[in-house]
Design goal:
This is DNA-binding transcriptional regulator, HxlR family. By secondary structure, this protein is mainly α. Helix content is 68%, strand content 6%. The protein has one domain: Winged helix-like DNA-binding domain superfamily/Winged helix DNA-binding domain (Arc Repressor Mutant, subunit A), CATH 1.10.10.10. The protein has a two-stranded antiparallel ribbon with strand order 1-2. α3 crosses α5 (51-63).
Protein backbone atom coordinates (compact mmCIF):
# COMPACT_ATOMS: atom_id res chain seq x y z
CA UNK A 1 0.00 0.00 0.00
CA UNK A 2 1.41 3.37 -0.88
CA UNK A 3 1.78 6.14 1.68
CA UNK A 4 -1.11 8.18 0.25
CA UNK A 5 -3.53 5.23 0.49
CA UNK A 6 -2.34 4.53 4.03
CA UNK A 7 -3.05 8.13 5.08
CA UNK A 8 -6.67 7.73 3.93
CA UNK A 9 -7.34 4.76 6.20
CA UNK A 10 -9.58 5.35 9.23
CA UNK A 11 -7.90 5.80 12.60
CA UNK A 12 -9.99 2.99 14.09
CA UNK A 13 -8.59 -0.47 13.16
CA UNK A 14 -12.06 -2.05 13.34
CA UNK A 15 -13.31 0.49 10.81
CA UNK A 16 -10.33 -0.35 8.58
CA UNK A 17 -11.30 -4.02 8.75
CA UNK A 18 -14.90 -3.19 7.86
CA UNK A 19 -13.71 -1.30 4.76
CA UNK A 20 -12.87 -4.72 3.32
CA UNK A 21 -15.81 -6.74 4.59
CA UNK A 22 -18.50 -4.05 4.14
CA UNK A 23 -21.52 -6.01 5.42
CA UNK A 24 -23.00 -9.20 6.81
CA UNK A 25 -23.25 -10.91 3.41
CA UNK A 26 -19.55 -10.33 2.67
CA UNK A 27 -18.52 -11.84 6.00
CA UNK A 28 -20.75 -14.89 5.53
CA UNK A 29 -19.69 -15.48 1.92
CA UNK A 30 -15.98 -15.08 2.68
CA UNK A 31 -16.39 -17.42 5.65
CA UNK A 32 -17.77 -20.21 3.45
CA UNK A 33 -15.06 -19.61 0.85
CA UNK A 34 -12.39 -19.89 3.56
CA UNK A 35 -13.99 -23.17 4.71
CA UNK A 36 -13.47 -24.55 1.21
CA UNK A 37 -16.90 -24.05 -0.37
CA UNK A 38 -15.73 -22.91 -3.76
CA UNK A 39 -18.47 -23.51 -6.32
CA UNK A 40 -21.09 -20.88 -7.07
CA UNK A 41 -24.10 -23.18 -6.74
CA UNK A 42 -22.89 -24.45 -3.34
CA UNK A 43 -22.18 -20.93 -2.10
CA UNK A 44 -25.61 -19.66 -3.08
CA UNK A 45 -27.29 -22.67 -1.47
CA UNK A 46 -25.32 -22.46 1.79
CA UNK A 47 -25.70 -18.70 2.19
CA UNK A 48 -29.36 -18.63 1.07
CA UNK A 49 -28.56 -15.47 -0.92
CA UNK A 50 -30.46 -14.45 -4.00
CA UNK A 51 -28.49 -14.50 -7.25
CA UNK A 52 -28.43 -10.68 -7.25
CA UNK A 53 -27.16 -10.42 -3.65
CA UNK A 54 -24.59 -13.16 -4.28
CA UNK A 55 -23.23 -11.37 -7.35
CA UNK A 56 -23.11 -7.98 -5.62
CA UNK A 57 -21.30 -9.50 -2.63
CA UNK A 58 -18.90 -11.41 -4.88
CA UNK A 59 -18.13 -8.18 -6.75
CA UNK A 60 -17.36 -6.44 -3.43
CA UNK A 61 -15.00 -9.21 -2.32
CA UNK A 62 -13.29 -9.17 -5.74
CA UNK A 63 -12.94 -5.38 -5.76
CA UNK A 64 -11.42 -5.46 -2.28
CA UNK A 65 -8.89 -8.11 -3.30
CA UNK A 66 -10.20 -10.83 -0.97
CA UNK A 67 -11.05 -13.43 -3.63
CA UNK A 68 -10.31 -14.42 -7.21
CA UNK A 69 -12.87 -15.92 -9.55
CA UNK A 70 -12.35 -18.46 -12.26
CA UNK A 71 -13.94 -21.87 -12.39
CA UNK A 72 -14.08 -21.71 -8.60
CA UNK A 73 -14.05 -18.84 -6.13
CA UNK A 74 -10.74 -18.80 -4.25
CA UNK A 75 -9.45 -16.63 -1.42
CA UNK A 76 -6.41 -14.47 -2.10
CA UNK A 77 -3.64 -14.16 0.49
CA UNK A 78 -5.39 -11.06 1.79
CA UNK A 79 -8.65 -13.01 1.96
CA UNK A 80 -6.94 -15.87 3.81
CA UNK A 81 -5.66 -13.37 6.37
CA UNK A 82 -9.29 -12.84 7.45
CA UNK A 83 -9.68 -16.48 8.53
CA UNK A 84 -8.76 -15.87 12.21
CA UNK A 85 -11.14 -12.89 12.28
CA UNK A 86 -14.06 -14.91 10.95
CA UNK A 87 -13.22 -17.91 13.16
CA UNK A 88 -13.19 -15.60 16.19
CA UNK A 89 -16.62 -14.29 15.18
CA UNK A 90 -17.90 -17.85 14.81
CA UNK A 91 -16.48 -18.79 18.22
CA UNK A 92 -18.12 -15.77 19.84
CA UNK A 93 -21.44 -16.61 18.17
CA UNK A 94 -21.31 -20.21 19.42
CA UNK A 95 -20.56 -19.10 22.98
CA UNK A 96 -23.39 -16.57 22.87
CA UNK A 97 -25.87 -19.14 21.55
CA UNK A 98 -24.83 -21.59 24.29
CA UNK A 99 -25.29 -18.94 26.98
CA UNK A 100 -28.73 -18.05 25.66
CA UNK A 101 -29.77 -21.70 25.62
CA UNK A 102 -28.97 -22.13 29.33
Amino acid sequence: MNDMAYKKLPKCPVETTMLFLKNRDSIILLGYILLGVLEKCELIKMTAMSEKTYQKTLDTLLKNGLITCGRNVLPTELGKSFKPVILAMADWGEKYKTQQKN
